[in-house]
Amino acid sequence: MAQQIRFDDPGAYESMMGTWSRSVGEVFLDWLAPPAGARWVDVGCGTGAFTRLVLERCAPAAVAGFDPAEQQVAHAQALSANSPLVSFRVGDAAAAPYADRSFDVAVMALVIFFVPDPERGVAEMMRLVRQGGIVCAYAWDMPGAGLPHASLGRLLKDAGHPALRPPSWEVSSAENLRALWTHAGLQDVEVREITVRRRFEDFEQMWEITTGAASIAAAVRELDAATREDVKRQWRAQFAPAPDGSVTGSARANAVRGRVPAG
Questions:
Q1: What is the mean pLDDT of the chain?
Q2: What's the predicted TM-score (pTM) here?
Q3: C-alpha to C-alpha distances, 39 to 154, 188, 261, nearest whole angstrom
Q4: Residue 116: which residues within 8 A CB-CB, separation 6 or more?
């Protein structure tokens, strides 16, 4: 059986993907331009990074988040305990724990490629959203090497220890997201590319945070000490430090949105 990506360390996830997700999410929400007072459902909410962004920027009536990882949900609940507008629970994207037409907006933030059956996941989002409501997502462009750690992933693969990939990684191309949303029967389907950058204090900070990512950590642990140092040296050579020693990474995501048709 293929090894699965596990999210047992909410702190490491928040440090790595939570920060990257918010950077993409800000651009995504500007593009989405959702109405104030909407009821949101954050499918695969993880640590609640995108949920908190919705609270900060969109003036929602309520936001519900669910995720299959209990540790992630507990982390999200702890961080949002003071907000009466937010609720989190454990649940599966293929069988969302909410009634039909409960929301105005359903979103998957860096999630669609983890859903074993993406078509089923989109159908569930459509079930949850009222007629005329929004079904949307953004995902790293994995076929186009858009992951924040894509260049490190190539080095690990060359070293014989490739990083783990989610089960539906191919779906995250712009073409495939458009096709998925269109075939589901959503209307007014649009896609866009989002490129973001992230500054790290120095290369060591970038290495520490990135190698804590769930998809990368196992591959790095499998390297012997000499190979690990060689991979680290090669990756370091790809970045030119600023005068203050900081380094900047980049990543690219694809976003998609559509509306639930009437009838």
A1: 93
A2: 0.92
A3: 40, 20, 18
A4: 94, 167, 168
